[in-house]
Fold:
Amino acid sequence: MSQAKTQHNNILLAIAGFVVVVIIVAIIGFFALDRDPELIQGQVEVTEYRVSSKVPGRILELRVKEGDFVKAGDTLAILDAPEVRAKMEQAQGAEAAAAALELKAQNGARQEQIQGAYQVWQQAQAGVEIAKKSYDRIQRLFDEGVISAQKRDEVYAQYKAMEAQERAAKSQYDMAVNGARREDKLAAMAQVNRARGAVSEVNSYIHETVQIAQMDGEVSNIYPKVGELVGTGSPIMTISVMTDMWGTFNVREDQLNGLAVGSTFTAFVPAFNKDIQMKVYYMKDQGSYAVWKATKANGQYDLKTFEVKARPVDKFDGLRPGMSLIIKE
Structure:
């Protein structure tokens, strides 16, 4: 019986020793092994603008290639648009026609027409003089009782008719001298302005056949080849504004750790194996589609993801779009 008790004690000691060893190893592992820090990875972004034309055309020439640095005002591409040139000829023809009509309205009638109206007026004046003399004679004869009142009235009516005819001839002459009506002149001027506006519009389209850089930057992508057709608004190339870079991070809200607009943090750039200081200027939640759902009903809750944008505090040469940025917690 003493032997059985001894054997039982040995088993208990072995179990106790094993438990102690496990605990010691766990403690050593907890203190000796460091946990890997949780990383937040983002990337470098850059402002871009696309070069496109308001008119369709065929790529006649590309003055730059991908990777070239361009300055504002540099010629990037030239398009061939024969339809626009045809519209320019039409617009210029319409402008010339409208200008001729305006000149006609301003100058009035032809010199021959004015002279003819003047001669008619002179003829009517002569008729009035003769009619007045005839009326004066008839009036004297009437006063002497030689002729009847009926005869005197007939001659008086002829005299008044000649006066009306003279006034009508004078108005015709004045109209020929003055030219077109004021309203007609204004309408002709409006037609000229309209035609000039059409020419200016086509000129703006012609300018669109030569694409120039709007800002300094680097040509990151060129889409069509020489000889290909591009439609209205179709992108020809993309220019990256290398002076405007920032980093974009998608951060779960329990990892924000004080990140706020205006705060600064350190980001690691693997491409250069260096740390850089960055300042947050934008934060926005990504919406319901980017929510981290809890896997358990008890003690857990859903977590939203925030888009965080930050710019380098100091200029960092060599930073390129697409490079990784690491935030170590």
